[in-house]
Amino acid sequence: MYRHKLWLAPLLLVSVLSIVPGSALTAGPDPEACLAEALPPQQIACLAKAAIAADDPFLCLEAELPGVRWPCVALYADHADDPALCGILPESEGVPAGVSQDLCHVQLAVTRRDPALCNGLTTPNLADGCYYQLVETGGDPALCERIANPDVKAVCAFDPERFE
Known about the structure:
Elements: H1 3-6, H2 8-17, H3 31-35, H4 40-54, H5 66-80, H6 97-112, H7 126-136, H8 150-155
Helix pairs in contact: 4-5, 5-6, 6-7
């Protein structure tokens, strides 16, 4: 049973080494090649690896889609341990800079399990969504009390035993 999973170990090791600073495999992928990837999740992962390897978060801004830019910057900001990097996201394709920056902070909050990153979001309802996502991914149910929207608060940490 375990033999079948052992073949994954070298792949995981190569994946980890490719983003560990100072490793022999730190040369990242070519950003142009990343942008040629077919699906946004592939573009995000590839471009984030390239940005981390080059120590340049602005490589994330080369993506055409805002939905690729902000997750890429969030991955870079998490790696750099610097949430302020979300601030480099500009307005693009009708998406205000503040929205992209807030989405970046929400992703960081969930990735780091840090509710403090939900504070101060300026986009309506994103703070509520941020707390909700934290609870849904195993965070403290007491975070539901921070949700302003009563409809979202009602479904946050739903306890079926309350209705029996």
